[in-house]
C-alpha cells in the first residue's frame, strides 16, 4: 500500500473546499480555525520543510462540510474535475478602489483565484461573504459568482456598487430611469432606494455556494 503524500492530503482539502463552494480560507473559517490554516503559504515552512495539516483541523473541516471520512479518502484519489478558474475577492474589500474598472469588471491586483462551476461569462468573478449581515441567504464564508455580462431582471440577487464606494448584496425590486429599489436579504436590515446617478454599477449573482 502506498504512503499518503503531502501533496495528496492538501489536494484533498482543496477539493473538499471546492465541493463546498469555498476557498481554502473560507473552509478554515467555517471550520472554526484561523483563516490562514489551509492557505498554500502555510504548506511549506520558511526553511522549506513540508507542513502537514493536523488531524484536528481535518476533522473540523469534515464536520463543517458534513463530509464522511470515506468521502474524504475518495477525494485523495479522485481525478480533479474540470472547473472554471475565476478571480476571487473578499466582499469586504470590494468597496476599496482599484479592484474594478468603471464598468464593474475585475481589474488591478489583489485578486486571488478559485475553481468553481463554469459560467458563461469570461468576465465573471467571485466574492467571498464575510459576516452574518446577509443571513439567511448567505453565510460567512459563502462564495457568490457575479456575472457583469448577464442581463438583470426584477427579483434577481445583485451586487451593487454606489458612487460613494459602498458595495452591497441585495435583491432588485424595481429599476426605472428615476429610481433603483433594492430589497435587503436580511429582514433585520432596511431596504435601499437609490437614484440611478448614485449607482456606479450593478451586476447579477449567477451562482452561490450553499
UniProtKB/TrEMBL annotation:
**The Peptidase S24/S26A/S26B/S26C domain, residue ranges:** 87-206
Instruction: Give the UniProt keywords, A-Z.
Output: DNA-binding, Transcription, Transcription regulation
List, alphabetically, the Pfam families matched: Peptidase_S24
In terms of InterPro entries, this protein maps to:
LexA-like, LexA/Signal_pep-like_sf, Peptidase_S24_S26A/B/C
Presence of the UniProt keyword Cell division in the record: no
GO MF term set: DNA binding
Renumbered to this chain, region (Disordered) spans: 33-52
Asked if the Swiss-Prot or TrEMBL record annotates the protein with the keyword Transcription, the reply is yes
Name of the molecule in the record: Phage repressor protein C, contains Cro/C1-type HTH and peptisase s24 domains
Its source organism is: Rhodopseudomonas pseudopalustris
Lineage, highest ranks first:
Bacteria, Pseudomonadati, Pseudomonadota, Alphaproteobacteria, Hyphomicrobiales
